[in-house]
From TrEMBL:
Residues 50-128 form the GIY-YIG domain. It comes from the Bacteria. The lineage of its organism: Bacteria, Pseudomonadati, Bacteroidota, Cytophagia, Cytophagales. InterPro entries: DUF4357 (IPR025579), GIY-YIG_endonuc (IPR000305). It comes from Aquiflexum gelatinilyticum. This is GIY-YIG nuclease family protein. Pfam families: DUF4357.
Length: 308
């Protein structure tokens, strides 16, 4: 199936990225507005804020310091936000979504809310502050399909506005296990590592007695479930990496099995070096030690890509 590009229009009301922002997908009816908590009162002058819609409150979790979000729905978004000003302290930004043609009903937004909570809990990028997931409202088939299409535009706009909580950690579409004749206990996927094979690159790290596998994607390095990590850290491990590893342990991403930690889920790192450092327990040059199945380092591969 042919995938077409999308055009997103962002209007900065104050001409700054920290103020009120309007977003829309060109030729679609969806309308989004991002607003700082300190300026919620200004939304009263926008008719969009008085319509039925879904909204996201964004802030930080006070215990872990990780990104946190609350997802809700309302027949009048502005009225509901006034309630949250008084009763929820953690958030400092709201992004809400309505329809420019005013065709969203209460049943529609309740369906959207439930699906959005479901998606956000599955991606595990943010801590979700919703304690109970509402049941999907019953919609006619045509309405349900329309809302699923609306969701695709919500994902696009909220990502463009700086939050990827609805995006799965990107991996190749097919990971087919193949027979592994090496001593590594890390599953191989059989994905080609040619320079022209696409944006995802399969990588392996096997050093200091630890073995890990990963993919380089558009967002960084995704270390795969089942990869190993050191039990102890050396004094050379940067304090930022120590804190990151501790968070992964507290969140259950790293679990002790025998004398090593094991990754319990696919885990995204921004670059190759922190991904490698968490595995081996000391500072390490990730681009030199992450290698493809043929033993070529990520550093060499990236140089070749630039030349080609």
């Amino acid at each position: 199936m042919t995938v077409f590009g999308k055009s997103i229009r962002i209007y900065l009301k104050d001409g700054t990225v920290t103020g009120i922002k309007f977003g829309e997908v060109v030729n679609q009816t969806i309308q989004s507005i991002s607003c700082p908590r300190s300026r919620i009162g200004e939304l009263s002058s926008y008719p969009e804020s008085k319509r039925p819609g879904v909204y996201f409150l964004f802030g930080l979790d006070e215990e872990s310091g990780n990104a946190k979000s609350y997802i809700g729905e309302a027949e009048n978004v502005f009225d509901r936000l006034q309630h949250h000003i008084a009763n929820k302290e953690f958030w400092n930004e709201v992004i809400f979504f309505v329809s420019k043609d005013e065709n969203l009903t209460k049943s529609h937004v309740k369906y959207l809310e439930s699906r959005l909570i479901q998606i956000a809990l599955t991606t595990k990028r943010y801590k979700i502050d919703n304690y109970n997931q509402s049941q999907l409202s019953s919609l006619p088939l045509a309405d349900r399909d329309a809302m699923e299409e609306f969701l695709t535009y919500v994902k696009l706009l909220i990502g463009v506005l700086g939050h990827k909580l609805l995006e799965d950690i990107t991996l190749p579409s097919a990971q087919l296990p193949i027979k592994d004749n090496t001593s590594s206990n890390i599953p191989k996927t059989g994905i080609s590592n040619d320079l022209n094979s696409g944006t995802s690159l399969e990588l392996f790290l096997n050093t200091s007695g630890y073995k890990a596998s990963a993919f380089q994607t558009d967002e960084g390095i995704v270390v795969l479930k089942g990869s190993e990590a050191a039990k102890e850290n050396t004094n050379s491990l940067a304090i930022g990496y120590v804190d990151l590893k501790e968070k992964l342990i507290q969140n259950g991403v790293l679990k002790m099995e025998g004398e090593k930690y094991i990754f319990q889920e696919n885990t995204l790192f921004s670059t190759a070096s922190p991904a490698a450092a968490i595995v081996v327990g000391y500072n390490i040059n990730g681009p030199q030690f992450w290698k493809n199945i043929n033993g070529k380092s990520l550093k060499e591969i990236e140089k070749e890509k630039v030349k080609s």
